[in-house]
Design brief:
By secondary structure, this protein is mainly β. It contains no helices and 38 strands. Strands 1, 2, 5, 8, 11, 12, 15, 18, 21, 24, 27, 30, 35 and 38 form a 14-stranded parallel sheet that branches. It is elongated and about 65 Å long. The termini are far apart.
């Protein structure tokens, strides 16, 4: 059976091929291939629970209602709990979050188009581990006038061993790819552009492998208690290079007022091209490599544009930026 579209008010039920056609608010409990769109969803479009279920939208669209709220359950596709589930080739727009993995492990979010949502394009949460996000396009499509998502891809606390690979993330209001309090995450061969903040952002995270990403109009930022992260052959252009910066815990954090410092991270290869000047600096500063309260990092074989201001090492939070090994 296929999935019938545009029925937003039906009572939520289990659905899937061989069960019943899916509608807004239903829970997918069997392998399912959509044959039409699902639209006007007031809350979550579809839930996916269980193990080893494949939801293939074959390009069909899930759309939130124009009057949708910013409640936490306003989600296009919500995996919770789910293990070994695959969501493939879905177009998702008009929700607070496009796709959310709320709990579970080893799920695959592949080849989806997610735009015009409000908070996150894709969110991995609930300490869900070992997930793969690959080949997704997150952000505005070619048409202008589509709202910006707050963050393109958000990998939340305890969501270790995520692989974020070969995605295109465009034009977030804040970070395009944000890894928070998570270890051993791989961020590989993504294209990031037009962010209003960092293109790739690691905070309080360890052991990440960030390689062969193409960044335009953004930075790669490493903040707080982040160590043992490796950056290999990333290309940054028309942005502000690499920034390693101390961070003071906020009131909502476990240790308010406590300072945390990036350390023992490694950058190898890649380049920083055509850096963008920091406004209102005299003489002008074209940042390519900055350390603010960050120590014992190593940078090698990184090609810096001739426009780059020499690497800066400044104190922050009472910590000097010392012991950093920098290119000549």
């Amino acid at each position: 059976m296929g999935v019938l579209g545009w029925a937003a008010t039906a009572t939520a039920a289990d659905c899937g091929d061989g069960v019943k056609a899916c509608q807004c608010g239903d829970t997918v409990v069997a392998n399912t291939t959509l044959t039409s769109n699902i639209g006007g969803c007031q809350k979550t479009g579809l839930f996916v629970v269980g193990s080893s279920i494949v939801l293939n939208c074959v390009g069909h669209t899930l759309t939130g209602a124009p009057t949708g709220t910013d409640d936490n359950d306003d989600i296009g596709i919500h995996l919770d709990p789910a293990t070994g589930v695959e969501v493939n080739s879905c177009s998702i727009t008009g929700f607070r979050q496009g796709i959310r993995i709320g709990s579970g492990h080893n799920n695959r979010i592949i080849n989806n188009v997610i735009f015009g949502n409000r908070k996150y394009g894709i969110e991995v949460a609930g300490a869900s581990t070992g997930n793969l996000l690959q080949g997704n396009q997150v952000g505005k499509p070619s048409a202008s006038g589509v709202r910006k998502v707050e963050e393109g891809i958000h990998n939340g606390s305890g969501s270790h061993n995520t692989v974020i690979r070969e995605n295109v993330v465009i034009d977030s209001k804040e970070e395009n790819i944000y890894v928070l309090n998570s270890n051993n995450v791989q961020v590989i061969m993504n294209i990031s552009s037009e962010t209003d903040s960092a293109a790739i952002f690691l905070k309080n995270s360890h052991g990440a492998f960030v390689a062969q990403n193409t960044v335009t109009n953004g930075s790669i930022t490493v903040r707080g208690d982040s160590s043992g992260n490796t950056f290999v052959n990333n290309t940054i252009s028309n942005g502000r290079g690499y920034l390693f910066e101390a961070h003071q815990d906020e009131a909502s954090d476990p240790s308010p007022g406590y300072w945390r410092f990036p350390r023992r991270n490694t950058v190898t290869g890649g380049s920083v091209k055509d850096p963008v000047v920091i406004p209102n600096t005299d003489p002008p500063i074209f940042p390519c490599l900055r350390f603010e309260g960050s120590y014992k990092n190593r940078v090698q074989q990184l090609q810096l544009d001739v426009k780059c201001t020499p690497p800066s090492q400044t104190p922050d939070g009472g910590q000097e930026s010392v012991g950093n090994v920098l290119p000549p």
